């Protein structure tokens, strides 16, 4: 794929990886990124490599391979018009200048993105990633093609609907999150509809019990290419933005007020602050302990 703009493969795809042990996302020593997914035509494994500043190499296997290759430009939001994005905030402007290859993501796989996002609701990231690994390895399927060992296609919606409550419990997933996953799985076909406006998909997501603004924003950032989706309610984000841009912690209201001039690119600005090395949040105590409730 030759792009009309620079594309930084590793930096752009980073939000799709759910921890270093993600069974659906594996990086190999040669710099390639391997992922497994489900598209409309079936499971697919794909290997992406950075060939040049504006060129991405792709190989794909499985029933969904042809569809994935055809839609590869959509994954990197190559249809975006950034001519109006000229941030005046110095740190954002500096990162935008130094990282022109940072792209937004539009996987189009809303339900596939939704499940790990629900798992991350109101729990430590380490615990959420462990739950994701356990459940994917149990209910997913081996990725097609000559793939790295352990690469796994995430479970289909039908499989998530059938996960017993006690299995969720063993994986450290509480009743609220497990019920939200099952409820979303029952209406998963309402999310992954080509041509459906992002605003309508967001409305449909919000209608599912257990899915709030934070979850909708996190999914929109990865599956819908929403450059303006801010994860309001995040445990760390508002404080990080405050310390980064004003030298003190913000609450959500202050964060939104400070980011308002950057609309409709608020999420892009947040990503730029992170990849540009500007994002800071002082540590005032020991790291939060990971609580395991699965043994109860």
Would you mind describing this structure in some detail?
Keywords: DNA damage, DNA repair. It comes from Skermania pinensis. This is DNA-3-methyladenine glycosylase 2 family protein. The protein has helices at residues 9-13, 65-70, 72-75, 90-98, 110-119, 125-139, 157-161, 165-170, 175-186, 198-206, 213-223, 237-246, 252-259, 266-275; strands spanning 25-27, 33-39, 42-52, 55-61, 141-142, 152-153. The protein has 296 residues and is of the alpha+beta class. Among the domains are: 9-85, no CATH class; 110-215, Hypothetical protein, domain 2 (Endonuclease III, domain 1). The strands form 2 sheets. The chain has a 4-stranded antiparallel beta sheet with strand order 1-2-3-4. It is globular, with a radius of gyration of 19 Å.
